[in-house]
């Protein structure tokens, strides 16, 4: 009996070198082939190393551990209003009504004491409401308070320092109302959108984006002109935006590389054999003509 030959399973049968012939066309195609494979390999590699950010929308309150609160950062300059007159008031639909909120806030005099920069860090409930910068908490109300202002920052929740996410996390940054009517009130109507960012490790950060519409007006009642204020009226969107950092799985990267190498060699082989067949046929025609 014949001994069992494991080599029968070889699907990559070897052709003896003396039965093959190299050609210049084959060499050119082979070099082009290798360069093309290298280019595609590097392209795939950069795609594999880079993270992509996928976003999705769903209805939920994402940050359930916050106790129904949202952290707010406000930084605003009023160049024509004394610091002793400036105050922050907070109201909402849960019955909160706070006049002259002073925790975690700071007032910095501007223009030799004629103006004021107010920086405040406070929390609001996750229900519609407003907070406003006004003279309501001052001991004596001024005759003509000047509410012209510049907003440096208004942001909610954690700060997301992520390059690939472009959103309206500080939509009011740089809002300049210095040329407005000094006696006008300002209304900023905000729609706050909860935003979750999940990095590669699965750690989540909770922030909020917002859109803003604004108007300014001089308000009157039956007793005369109402003292102006800068109102930030907010409402929350029930839709949450979630950004997730992802990286292409390794098996997909390997599959792509195999497809690139196999596909390129196959196409190049077809091309080479077509050229070779055509050139052989051409040689036969030439020989026929000579004879």
From TrEMBL:
One cellular-component annotation, GO: endoplasmic reticulum membrane
UniProt-listed InterPro entries: Erv, Erv_C, Erv_N
Membrane topology classification: Multi-pass membrane protein
Domain of life: Eukaryota
Domain Endoplasmic reticulum vesicle transporter C-terminal: 108-272
Subcellular location field: Endoplasmic reticulum membrane; Endoplasmic reticulum-Golgi intermediate compartment membrane; Golgi apparatus membrane
Transmembrane segments: 23-42, 250-271
Keywords: Endoplasmic reticulum, ER-Golgi transport, Golgi apparatus, Membrane, Transmembrane, Transmembrane helix, Transport
Keyword Protease listed: no
Keyword Secreted: no
Domain (Endoplasmic reticulum vesicle transporter N-terminal) ranges: 6-98
GO biological-process terms attached to the record: endoplasmic reticulum to Golgi vesicle-mediated transport; retrograde vesicle-mediated transport, Golgi to endoplasmic reticulum
One Pfam family, short name: COPIIcoated_ERV
Described purpose of this protein according to its UniProt entry: Plays a role in transport between endoplasmic reticulum and Golgi.
Family note: Belongs to the ERGIC family.
Protein name in UniProt: Endoplasmic reticulum-Golgi intermediate compartment protein
Organism: Melanocharis versteri
Chain's gene name: Ergic1
């Amino acid at each position: 009996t014949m001994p069992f030959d494991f080599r029968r399973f070889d699907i990559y049968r070897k052709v003896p070198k003396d039965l093959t012939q190299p050609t210049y066309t084959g060499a050119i195609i082979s070099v082009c082939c290798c360069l093309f494979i290298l280019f595609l390999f590097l392209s795939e590699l950069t795609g594999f190393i880079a993270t992509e950010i996928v976003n999705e929308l769903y209805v939920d309150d994402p940050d359930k551990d916050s106790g129904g609160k949202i952290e707010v950062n406000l930084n605003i300059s009023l160049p024509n209003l004394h610091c002793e007159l400036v105050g922050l008031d907070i109201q909402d639909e849960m019955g909160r009504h706070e006049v002259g909120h002073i925790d975690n806030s700071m007032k910095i005099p501007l223009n030799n004491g004629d103006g004021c920069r107010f920086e405040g860090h406070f929390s609001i409930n996750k229900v519609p409401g407003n907070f406003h910068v006004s003279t309501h908490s001052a001991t004596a109300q001024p005759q003509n308070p000047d509410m012209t202002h510049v907003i440096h920052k208004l942001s909610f929740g954690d700060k997301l320092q992520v390059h690939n996410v472009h959103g309206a996390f500080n939509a009011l940054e740089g809002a300049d109302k210095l040329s407005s009517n000094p006696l006008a009130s300002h209304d900023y109507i905000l729609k706050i959108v909860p935003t979750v960012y999940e990095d590669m490790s699965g750690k989540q950060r909770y922030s909020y984006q917002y859109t803003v519409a604004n108007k300014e007006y001089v308000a009157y009642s039956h007793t005369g002109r109402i003292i102006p204020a800068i109102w930030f009226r907010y409402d929350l969107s029930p839709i949450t935006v979630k950004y997730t950092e992802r990286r292409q799985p390794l098996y997909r990267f390997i599959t792509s590389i195999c497809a690139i190498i196999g596909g390129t060699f196959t196409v190049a082989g077809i091309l080479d054999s077509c050229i070779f067949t055509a050139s052989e046929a051409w040689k036969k025609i030439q020989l026929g003509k000579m004879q």
